[in-house]
Amino acid sequence: MKKNQLKKYLIKIQKENKEPIKNFNISIEGSVCDTNTKFKDVVSFYILNENGVIKEISVKCGPCDPYAYITSNILSKILKGLKIEQIRINNDMIYQEFLKSLDYRIDEDMRFHFETLLKILEDKLNEIK
Amino acid sequence: MKNYKKYFPFFKNNPKKVYLDSACMGLKPYTVIKSINEYYLKYSICAGRSTYKLSKDLEEKLDISREKIAKLINAKSKREIVWTKNTTESINILAKSFRFEKDKKRVIITEKEHNSNHCVWKELSKKGIIDLTILDVNKDNTFNLEMLEEQLKKGDVGIVSTVHISNLDGIENPIKKISELTHKYGAYLLIDAAQSVPHTKVDVSKNSIDFLAFSIHKLYGPTGLGVLYVKSELFDKLDLYNVGGDTIRNTFIDKDPEYRTYPYKYEAGLAYFSGIYGVSSVVDFINKIGYQNMEERINLLNNRFRQFLKQFEEIKIIGDIESEDKIKGITTFFIKKFTRFSENDPTIGEKLDKKYNILLRTGFFCVNPYFDNREKRGEINPIYYPAIRASFGFYNDEEDLEKLEKSIKGILNSLKGWPTL
């Protein structure tokens, strides 16, 4: 993925409110790169679950690289309003939405971040179910 | 500017490097290295334990080191100086040997303490030996005296333990005022002076400090040696810590051991003779340069650097207070942008080293609770990590500062066009 594409997306979301929601009832923390001692890409999702539906979601990412930052940002937008049971790695709708957000141009690294974070969410939400 | 680099072999052996990590380690002057070597060349023996003259001579030399350290911090007696391994051990010894009274077992620290002055209290708290209160500092990172007094008024505080000069942001805490308040409410004061003794005159008598901890390795001396200062009359508030060799007067098969008096009974095992021997030349060196000269140089460079950073909107200084006289030699800041773009990219610290020969520290600087607290309150965006810390020594000069500034400009230029987050 070209740096310019990353830059473009970051500029697009620069002004967004990044305050974590306060009334969450699920928090999920995961790391994309467990083995990388330099930078672990720690991502935390804060979810308000109402009757099995993700009513609100916010994300905190850091320390992390732009890939993790962008992936978690896009995921939080896609997942809002979905039923918890829909949060699955094999849910193609989520992947298509993700691709669309990045103008259908993603590289292996971005795909890896997407899959890892979605898997973390799926696993943790399954435990809660 | 006077050239102090000539006293340090580091600069001869690393002529291109700009060393800005003095908060971690003070460089070693030739005289100190020579002195440590002298122990091995002339002595290499045990001090005091044996009756031959060479052993007695060595004991006297080591005693001079203790005396010089006592004078350096204006302790009343050399017997108030306990040799330890480092600041961390000094604080551990005090924390674990202090006999807390039942109704005064609360300890107050702040969110801005080094892990050395955090973890040991947490462990004692977990065991129920103390109750721990961790005070927030003010929003600008200065010490909150009002909050301290509010806590002290409860009357159950045994010890207030806090840092003198923070290794996070260089802010100097008002230890005289903290001391007055602490004593007003019948508590004792432990000061973590790891960052202050190397750069500024610390006076335990004038400031009525009960306990003080610092490391010799930051003081341009050998690694693995530290100091715990204990006011004479407070030794009887301490239980024994480590016991064994060198702490005892006599032991028996069927009776309790008889221990030596302080400070020796807190210095178990064979001492770090070569290190202690070298301390004498450490103090001579500091006196030769003079604290005032050291402090002036360090503050000048550090304050200029802070002014330089303030022109960039993408920089956030931690502890950005107006009064420059309260900041001592350390500047920590964030770049509010991504500084690396993939796993394989070098970190900001690596870039500064490889491309610009700047040696400084990035990360949390062992003050993790502060970052944790501020992150939770939404005051620090973890995207900015790692924080970058430049810590000056009196051997740094304008040329170093120029190189540092050039490196920061270079980094920021390379990030041009990327949004500030």
Task: Provide an overview of this structure.
The complex is a heterodimer of chains A (129) and B (421). With 129 residues, chain A is α+β, with helices and mostly antiparallel strands. Chain A is built from four helices and three strands. In chain A, strand 2 (42-50) and strand 3 form a beta hairpin. In chain A, helix 2 (66-79) crosses helix 3. Chain A is globular, with a radius of gyration of 14 Å. With 421 residues, chain B is α/β, with parallel strands linked by helices. Chain B has helices at residues 9-13, 30-43, 53-72, 87-97, 119-126, 145-152, 175-184, 273-289, 291-310, 348-356, 368-376, 398-414, and strands at 18-19, 81-84, 106-110, 131-135, 157-163, 188-192, 211-215, 226-230, 248-250, 258-259, 315-317, 330-335, 358-359, 361-363, 387-391. In chain B, helix 2 runs antiparallel to helix 8. At the A-B interface, helix 1 and helix 2 of A face loops of B.
Number of helices of chain A: 4
Biggest beta-sheet profile of chain B:
7 strands, mixed
Q: Which regions of chain B have little confidence, pLDDT < 50, spanning 5+ residues?
A: none
What is the overall silhouette of chain B?
A: globular
Number of strands of chain A: 3
Helix % of chain A is 40-55%
- The value of Rg of chain A in angstroms is 14 Å
Brief rundown of the structure:
Chain A is of the alpha+beta class and 129 residues long. Chain A is built from four helices and three strands. Chain B is an alpha/beta fold and 421 residues long.
Please name the defining characteristics of this protein:
heterodimer, A: 129 residues, alpha+beta, 4 helices, 3 strands, 43% helix, globular, B: 421 residues, alpha/beta, four-stranded antiparallel β-sheet, 35% helix
